[in-house]
Amino acid sequence: MIRTIILGQGMVANYFAVGLERIKTGEIPPYGVPLANVKLRRKIEEIEIVGAYDVDAEKVGKTVYEVAKKWIGEVSPIPEKLKEVEVREGVHLRSLNGVLSGVLGLERKMTLKDALNVIIDQWREMNPDVIVNVITTENAKPINSINELEERIDRNDIEKLTATQVYAYATLKYREETGRKAAFINAIPTPVANDEKIVEMYNRKGLPLFGDDGATGATPLTADLLEHMATRNRKVEFIVQFNIAGNIDFLALTLPERNIMKEITKVSIIKDILGYDVPHYIKPTGYLEPLGDKKFVSIHMEYYTFNNLKDEIYVNVRMNDSPALAGLLVDLVRIGKICIDKGICGAVYPVNLFYMKMPGPPGSKSTSKILAFQKLKEWLKEIDGLVDE
Ligand SMILES: NC(=O)c1ccc[n+]([C@@H]2O[C@H](COP(=O)([O-])OP(=O)(O)OC[C@H]3O[C@@H](n4cnc5c(N)ncnc54)[C@H](O)[C@@H]3O)[C@@H](O)[C@H]2O)c1
Questions:
Q1: Binding-site residues, ligand 1, Cβ < 6 A
Q2: pTM for the structure as a whole
Q3: Residues 242-256: pLDDT tens digits?
Q4: Structural domain boundaries enclosing 149
């Protein structure tokens, strides 16, 4: 069994929980799960969601079934199994400021230190192998030291901490206090696998860390198009890539300080793949409610080809946003458990390179996703993560 906790029971988490249970019962094929067709040592059927956290008053105290029914019940049947998991109250730490009002959060009624103890006591019972972070995009900077983070928690300095950093720290504390190991998957842009100090601690405590920011949607497509340019020595002149959607994640991204977090994780690919930078406009540009979770993506590039002639590429896509990340999580959770089985820890580059927009550890290069997928499979063979026929 792979005991999994979800942080942030939003769209991605709902699709993950629902899709996972439907795959397990054979109701749907595992499309959108990259490693579904190779024999990974850990099976999809082993994944069990044992806990979920949120701070939205409309979700806390409900079951994952009730939450999923309300948010995606119109587009998908919701498996009864999800009635077994209750959404519990997490720490807020401003992550929904300006996005949602009337937000809960354990720190409203106790110190942050006590809130951490409450969460770790709950984890003691849930006994997680993997913790998946899919809360709302925050604005965050790497921490300077773990001591400083601990001091801020001790001082209850809630203005200088983000929820993701506290959850990543709770995973370390869980290890320290119970002796058990859990992998932390950071699928959002907050630097965790790109935070030198956090990575160092995960290495020291023997915990696997995946991040940052799941690579779905337009960015991996742009990365693969750039690889196409690089392998043909075509000189790219400029790149335009924008997204518009009508989900809450995009509403949060209309706040400039959060939008910049996405921009940072998206633009690192250009220089890494082409070897030179080019003028670019790459960011989520807007929120338009009727688009819902099915976002509109447009990509445009100009490049010089042989004889110095100019070509143009235009790509227009309407794609379901959150299910794309949910499919990747089905692999990441299994690989998280494999890393624990095999004693692999720290920011695991071959995994992050394929699944993340900003692969940690800090300073790591991005490549196209086509190359990253080959490297991932080679690495899985090496660590005995794939089972031979
Ligand atoms: N394709 C994708 O959808 C995609 C790709 C890459 C990264 N991401 C990242 O995944 C995250 C989730 O996306 P989504 O579409 O599910 O967003 P969402 O807004 O639907 O869900 C986020 C959930 O997190 C909850 N939350 C916020 N702060 C919290 C906290 N402090 N503790 C616990 N829960 C908290 C919210 O109440 C909400 O239920 C975003 O940060 C986004 O950047 C999404």
A1: 7-12, 53-56, 59, 90-93, 95-96, 134-137, 163, 187-189, 213-214, 216-217, 247-249, 321-322, 324-325
A2: 0.95
A3: 899 998 888 888 777
A4: 2-214+323-382
